[in-house]
Amino acid sequence: MDTSFVNLTLDNIENEHICCAIADKKHQNGVKIKKAWISNRIKEGHVFRKLNAKGKVFIEYAPLEYAWVPVVGDNYIYIYCLWVAGSFKGNGYGKELISYCINDAKSQGKSGVCVISTKKKKPFLTEKKFVQKYGFEVVDSIDSEYELLAASFDGTKPQFTENAKKQSIDSKQLTIYYGMQCPYIPNCIEQVEAYCKDKSVPLELIKVDTLEKAKSAPCVFNNWAVFYNGKFETVHLLNEGLLKKLLENN
């Protein structure tokens, strides 16, 4: 098994791939935007660590105070994403990556590591059962579905912001909060805009382009959140097909 990993830096980020959209041409604009986003975060302690191979094997995390999520806590690390895809599964890469993150947090004198997950596995969020193997426990929840898990080193616990627990907004129209951290998002936005224009569906897109906006999001948010009829629906990124299904079910 290849155990060679590389961390993105300002010196190598232009020449390294970022795993997620490694071969899909329609997401290359998103890759450029993602790399620019990471470049602005590295000085804050943001880490993107990946297998030195042509595959989707990586972990991405940051100090919680700089993490673009509606979660607060003292001296924590937040994991945005941990992904081991396809043929790379079963080789111990997930263990290697999360162990690196935990050890990195300990070496920095952090109080622990946290991550947003769900009771049942959902796309675009780290799997609960996996992180529980490494000492993560549920420390907060929203609507009995979304959960904040933490591996605490000193007994302290992070939590969702009170605003995140609203899970509702005043507007009844389709509303999407989105960041530019995920390379898939620009294409998703294009598909959503095109579908809504074609079907005359009122749409409001809210760009989360600052840390403050992310921390004050009125819902669970890891870079994407969808509301319809004033109610939070999902953090699942939408293409045309998924959007059609969502609208038909409401």
Q: In summary, what is this structure?
A:
This protein is α+β, with helices and mostly antiparallel strands and about 250 residues long.
Integer-rounded radius of gyration: 18 Å
The largest sheet, given as strand count, sense and whether it forms a barrel, is: 7 strands, mixed
CATH superfamily of the largest domain: Gcn5-related N-acetyltransferase (GNAT)
How do the helices and strands follow one another from N- to C-terminus? EHEEEEHEHEEEEHEHEEH
Task: Enumerate how many helices there are, as a single number.
Answer: 6
The CATH topology assignment of the largest domain is Aminopeptidase
Mean pLDDT: 94
List how many beta strands DSSP finds: 13
Descriptive report:
The chain is 25% helix and 27% strand. The chain has 250 residues and is an alpha+beta fold. It folds into 2 domains: 5-160, 3-Layer(aba) Sandwich (Aminopeptidase); 164-248, Glutaredoxin (3-Layer(aba) Sandwich). A 7-stranded mixed sheet has the order 1-2-3-5-6-8-7. The longest helix has 15 residues, at 93-107. The model has no long low-confidence stretch (mean pLDDT 94).
